[in-house]
Design a protein that fits this description.
Distance between the termini: 26 Å
Shape: globular
Structural class: alpha+beta
Strand order of the largest sheet: 3-5-4
Order of helices and strands: EEEEHHEH
Number of strands: 5
Number of helices: 3
Length: 118
Amino acid sequence: PLLAKYCPGLDAVPICRRPDRKRVRFAVPKAFVPLPPAPLPIGCVVLLRRSRDSKAGLESVDPAGALRGLLNGAFAPGREVTGAAFDALSKIIGSAQAYCLTYSRLDDAVELIAKACR
């Protein structure tokens, strides 16, 4: 319901259970299908902080904070990140802008991200 406007057909996407037991759906926007044969560069990393009744805001995050945020939200079998995975995250953080998005209303959040991550 929250993302229905942005991801038509979301109800058809399988539901997964995260390690924290929350149920989520991982939808791929139509703009990304079909995927190119080579990986696309990552220009922005956005850490999410949803807060009831908060005005939407986007703050720059330093590389260490961005890496910390990604690792806190990551899942790995055995609860360990491999050296290769850590290297990949470090490379992304080294080449991407990183932000923390605080928001209450999804429309406000989408507008801020669209402006910041072009």
